Amino acid sequence: MSDIVSQLHKAASAARKNSYSPYSNFKVGAALLGADGKIYAAANVENAAYPQSQCAEASAIGVMVAAGCTEIKEVLVLAEAPGDEPVSCCGGCRQRLNEFAGPEVVIHMANEQRVLGTITMKEMLPMSFGPKQLAK
Ligand code: THU
Question: How far apart, in whole angstroms, are the C-alpha atoms of residue 95 and residue 103?
Answer without folding.
Answer: 12
